[in-house]
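To the wet lab folks,

You asked to see what we're planning to order before we commit. Fair enough. Below is the target structure as tokens, and below that is the sequence we designed to fit it. If anything looks off to you, flag it before the synthesis order goes out.
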């Protein structure tokens, strides 16, 4: 009798728990590495702990301390130290662009970095590009926007 009651209780609880589980929508990224993944109440996926986002076909790898993919807006704010390794200098725009003459380019104010066959845009307040190492350091409010990638369901 107790076993039958336990089976009935489990059968009643499991559908309720399944109905309350948030839908996981993965970001349109070829490969990610991170220490932790958590979900917010609004359905955003938070990647934290030495996050690495790879876009192999585009020759781009993004490193950040944390990223929060928001399927509703199809973008990902990046937090902490944010750097980008690129195979070649992507298309970049900014309010002010300066060169140091030693291969270092400085971008200040409303920076946008466009890359990829499916257009991804990184927005930032500031960026420095080292032509020798092909490394791009981003600062301020940094956000990765997936322009032509529809959120995956």
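Sequence we intend to order:
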């Amino acid at each position: 009798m107790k076993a039958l009651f336990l089976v009935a209780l489990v059968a009643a609880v499991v559908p309720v728990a399944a109905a309350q589980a948030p839908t996981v929508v993965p970001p349109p990224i070829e490969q990610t590495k991170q220490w932790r993944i958590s979900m917010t109440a609004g359905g955003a996926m938070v990647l934290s702990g030495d996050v690495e986002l790879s876009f192999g076909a585009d020759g781009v790898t993004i490193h950040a301390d944390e990223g929060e993919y928001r399927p509703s807006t199809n973008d990902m704010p990046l937090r902490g130290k944010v750097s980008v390794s690129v195979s070649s200098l992507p298309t970049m725009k900014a309010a002010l662009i300066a060169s140091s003459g030693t291969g270092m380019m400085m971008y200040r104010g409303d920076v946008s970095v466009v890359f990829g066959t499916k257009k991804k845009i990184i927005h930032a307040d500031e960026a420095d590009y080292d032509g020798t190492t092909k490394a791009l350091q981003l600062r301020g409010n940094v956000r990765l926007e997936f322009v032509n990638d529809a959120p995956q369901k």
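Structural context that might help your review: The domain at 2-146 is CATH 2.60.450 (lipopolysaccharide transport protein A fold). The longest strand covers residues 104-115.

Thanks,
Computational group
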